[in-house]
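Morning F.,

Quick status update on the modeling queue. The single chain you submitted on Monday has been processed. Sequence for confirmation:
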Amino acid sequence: MKPVSKSLFALTLTLVMGALVSAARAEVQYEDSFPRQVSIDSRRIEPDHILNQPMLRMAELPRIDIVVPFASGSDKLSPEGEAAVAKVAAILKGPGFMGPGRKAAHVLVEGNTDSAGKAKRNQELSYRRALRVTTTLVHKYGIPAGMLTPKGFGSSVPVATNSTAGGRAANRRVSFSVVRPACN
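Structure tokens below.
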């Protein structure tokens, strides 16, 4: 990677920090091919930015391989669904997702439906399912609301065929994707 010119970096820093840095001389220290720290004169600036975090590949993000099932046309949690949500809560409270002095991971709660019914209704139902699981995790299990984002996908992300009863049942679910790992 080419070294960044001092004046270009200073200009970029001015725009990012929202302050005039034209008189200051910026020095960049490189580790692992990207800037880790910036010093301006004698002050240290350590922005909370993706460049301060280790680079992660998708395979390195923690996974939650639990699916919360739902009955056809419903956003109510069954006993089986409640048990799945309890397992997810236990995972989210673990050290890989939150802990003292750490910024919690961020998880996308993905609601899905089968293809039965109208697309608009399925979209709304999938969001209600995601919201139901998110609300349960927050209110019943104490997961911070800022860790979770509910999103409805309707019938657009099937995991099985919608031409059989078993396939439709598999598609009526809420799943989870970690979009940001926990960090210090």
